[in-house]
Amino acid sequence: MATASKQSIKEPAEERERNNSVRVEIFDQPYSLRGSDPGYIQQLASYVDSKMRAVAEQTHTVDTARLAVLAAINIADEIHLLRSRQEQGSPEYSECAHRLASALDEALGHPPRT
């Protein structure tokens, strides 16, 4: 009877796991990934696939492990550059913020900032 109860407990968990599972293909390899947003998981998988294919075209490498590492380095570089830009801020945003602050100071009758 203990075996039967384990199976009945296990089956709903497996069913839940399958319901949250998304089947994707990355560089012609199938993967089953779990997450709360299947569409987003599919987008991520598609992005990784496109990066691996781009690296494969540039390097003519067929070793999938090597391609995956090189694609990961490219993605990490993109993230690093985006974070750096975000931390530094855009010169256009800084200029716009300065103009808005000056206009606000003028409207409020405060002396201009230097």
Outline the secondary-structure elements.
Blueprint (H helix, E strand, L loop, with lengths): L1 H18 L1 E6 L2 E6 L3 H22 L4 H25 L2 H18 L6
Antiparallel strand pairs: 1-2
Helix pairs in contact: 2-3
Encode the helix/strand succession as letters: HEEHHH
Termini gap: 82 Å
Strand share of the residues?
A: 5-15%
- Which secondary-structure class do the elements indicate? mainly alpha
Which quaternary structure do these chains form?
single chain
Largest sheet properties: 2 strands, antiparallel
Poorly predicted runs are: 1-11
- Which descriptor suits the 3D outline? elongated
The total of beta strands comes to 2
Radius of gyration: 25 Å
List keywords for this structure.
4 helices, two-stranded antiparallel sheet, disordered N terminus, 114 residues, elongated, 73% helix, mainly alpha
